[in-house]
């Protein structure tokens, strides 16, 4: 009896499937979800179905068969819960010729399901319809044509400077002109704070933890709270659950400088919705289009700092603002922070590559943190005095250093490119030789395969490195801009009384540490400070800007003094 009742219930049940995509809005009100529901319900009732169940996909393209409402309907059909499916026309079922054909030719007949496409006059209970496959083909062609037109339209918009996507977190659409962005001050304050915390030395995970502790809404939770619809997976996470990847995404967003970046991604086909990252040279960038949230100099400093690999913690978990900034004068490796075992308050940086520790450096490269703090603060104060009292000379010195630094780096990179390209050509020649030797029977197929694989792997690495170098060389185009940024940054710290991590990150690229040397019976240690964008700045000796006098007593009772004049050729702090 139950089986009979269940069968009767199925025979009286019909599934209604209205679907609307963004393209269908162009066709008028007849395609609206409500009008489709009315049309399908009337048709189903006229055919004797009393139990009507509706599955809806609103704003979903028919090109993809992976639609929430469609998937739910198919799951119910597989369970045998309906005898018929009603759609407005065949394009509502989908615009994929192969998949829709499979449904009509295999799935629906196999599960004894009646398909009715009301506007197309198709009812499978009447037998095979010879026009149905042709309609499916035309529906797919329509989708292909719409996609082609949209690509052309997007290309025109993207090349004209119109944003191709929604504004990032921190911006919103201008109510008076949706094609422009304006600053969303509430969210922009969080963005600025993330950049400030990064410059102060905090890592992305630490920033995420701090934002979560303070209960600050994540970008997605913020948009939901403001009623802003944004695409995405929409995972059910706590609204203040920040992830370090979200922080990284904020820090990588160049749009915060006021720029528009178009064509960052593309899709291979109108049937594939997955976006693929474009090569950076294929991006179209329009600078200073909208109001910046973050100064360009700050954004670039953050990118440079994040691009450096830093060991920020000691084995006890301590973080020091100099971590990652100090390099050995002999081997060029980063110095690591340590604590004196006998006196934990005494902290110092040292190079682990000392020959006595089975390394290659002939001397110990170590420096006390308290000594380092005094020297660097004094040198920054000396630099800010130079900038404030002798503006013209300071600007000239910075510009000169910027150009010289850029020229030196560019030449070194270009030499490396030439060397790599020569090696790439050499590998081509070697490959040709082993190919000829293989054909002539001089080397076996196994050896040829092994050697060719090795050459191909090396060439792949060369290609990546050459591209990296060429990208870096192209960034040297406007050194005057970077020099101006450095000048404005220096002026921010004219009255600085204390050394901070933010100050170090904004001003200094790295510091070369030399071993302490005994000169005329006095122990002296020198440093070379390389500033961001400009490198080493040489302050003229004839200006009344005396070198800082800094000394520290070591644990052995020996006094080590800062020796800026020991080697003038090394520049500031030499």
Give a structural overview.
The strands form eight sheets. This protein has a five-stranded mixed sheet, with helices on both faces. A four-stranded mixed sheet has the order 19-20-23-22, covered by helices on one side. A three-stranded mixed sheet has the order 14-18-21. The chain folds into four domains: 2-153, Resolvase, N-terminal catalytic domain (Rossmann fold, 3-Layer(aba) Sandwich); 161-307, Putative Large Serine Recombinase, Chain B, Domain 2 (Hect, E3 ligase catalytic domain fold), CATH 3.90.1750.20; 326-386 and 494-570, no CATH class; 394-485. The protein is built from 16 helices and 23 strands. Strand 15 and strand 16 form a beta hairpin. Mean pLDDT is 79; it is low at 1-5, 26-30, 309-316, 477-481 and 565-574. It is elongated. By secondary structure, the chain is of the alpha/beta class. The longest helix has 49 residues, at 391-439.
Considering the chains and any ligands shown, give keywords for the structure:
23 strands; 4 domains; disordered C terminus; elongated; Rossmann fold; 574 residues; alpha/beta; 5-stranded mixed β-sheet; disordered N terminus; 14% strand; 4-stranded mixed β-sheet
Strand content range: 5-15%
Oligomer: single chain
Overall pLDDT: 79
CATH architecture of the largest domain: 3-Layer(aba) Sandwich
The CA-CA distance between the termini, in Å, is: 98 Å
Query: What class do helices, strands and sheet pairing give?
Result: alpha/beta
CATH class of the largest domain: Alpha Beta
Q: What summary fits the major beta sheet?
A: 5 strands, mixed
């Amino acid at each position: 009896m139950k089986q009979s009742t269940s069968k009767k219930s199925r025979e009286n049940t019909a599934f209604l499937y209205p679907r609307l995509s963004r393209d269908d809005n162009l066709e008028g009100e007849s395609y609206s979800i409500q009008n489709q529901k009315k049309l399908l319900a009337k048709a189903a009732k006229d055919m004797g179905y009393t139990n009507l169940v509706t599955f809806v996909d609103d704003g979903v393209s028919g090109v993809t068969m992976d639609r929430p409402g469609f998937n739910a309907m198919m799951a119910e059909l597989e369970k045998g819960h309906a005898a018929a499916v009603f759609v407005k026309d065949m394009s509502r079922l989908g615009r994929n010729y192969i998949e829709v054909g499979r449904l009509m030719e295999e799935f629906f007949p196999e599960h004894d399901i009646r398909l009715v496409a009301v506007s197309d006059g198709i009812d499978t209970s009447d037998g095979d319809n010879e026009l149905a496959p042709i309609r499916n083909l035309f529906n797919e062609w329509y989708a292909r044509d719409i996609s082609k037109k949209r690509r052309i339209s997007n290309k025109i918009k993207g090349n004209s400077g119109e944003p191709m996507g929604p504004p990032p977190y921190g911006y919103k659409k201008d109510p008076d002109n949706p094609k422009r962005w304006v600053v969303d001050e509430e969210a922009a304050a969080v963005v600025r704070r993330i950049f400030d915390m990064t410059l102060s030395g905090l890592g992305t995970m630490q920033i995420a933890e701090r934002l979560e502790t303070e209960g600050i809404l994540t970008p997605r939770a913020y948009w939901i709270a403001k009623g802003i619809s944004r695409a995405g997976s929409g995972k059910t996470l706590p609204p203040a659950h920040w992830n370090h990847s979200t922080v990284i995404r904020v820090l990588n967003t160049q749009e915060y400088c006021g720029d528009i970046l178009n064509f960052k991604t593309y899709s291979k086909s109108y049937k594939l919705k997955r976006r693929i990252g474009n090569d950076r040279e294929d991006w179209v960038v329009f600078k200073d289009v909208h109001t910046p949230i973050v100064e360009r100099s700050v954004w670039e400093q953050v990118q440079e700092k994040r691009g450096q690999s830093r060991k920020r913690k000691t084995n006890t978990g301590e973080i020091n603002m100099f971590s990652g900034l100090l390099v050995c004068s002999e081997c060029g490796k980063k110095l690591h922070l340590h604590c004196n075992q006998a006196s934990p308050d005494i902290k110092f940086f040292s190079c682990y590559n000392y020959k006595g520790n089975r390394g290659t450096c002939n001397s110990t490269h170590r420096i006390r943190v308290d000594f380092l703090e005094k020297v660097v603060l004094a040198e920054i104060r000396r630099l800010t005095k130079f900038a404030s009292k002798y503006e013209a000379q300071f600007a000239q010195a910075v510009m000169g250093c910027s150009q010289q630094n850029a020229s030196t780096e560019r030449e070194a990179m270009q030499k490396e490119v030439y060397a790599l390209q020569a090696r790439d050509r050499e590998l081509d020649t070697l490959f040709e030789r082993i190919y000829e030797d293989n054909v002539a029977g001089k080397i076996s197929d196994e050896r040829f395969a092994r050697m060719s694989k090795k050459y191909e792997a090396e060439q792949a690495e060369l290609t990546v490195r050459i591209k990296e170098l060429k990208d870096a060389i192209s960034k040297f185009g406007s050194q005057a801009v970077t020099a101006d940024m450095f000048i404005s940054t220096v002026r921010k710290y004219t009255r600085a009384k204390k050394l901070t991590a933010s100050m170090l990150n904004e001003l200094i690229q790295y510091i070369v540490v030399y071993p302490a040397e005994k000169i005329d019976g006095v122990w002296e240690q020198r440093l070379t400070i390389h500033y961001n964008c400009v490198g080493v700045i040489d302050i003229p000796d004839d200006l009344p800007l005396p070198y800082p006098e800094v000394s520290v007593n070591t644990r052995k009772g020996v006094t080590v003094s800062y020796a800026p004049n020991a080697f003038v050729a090394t520049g500031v702090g030499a």
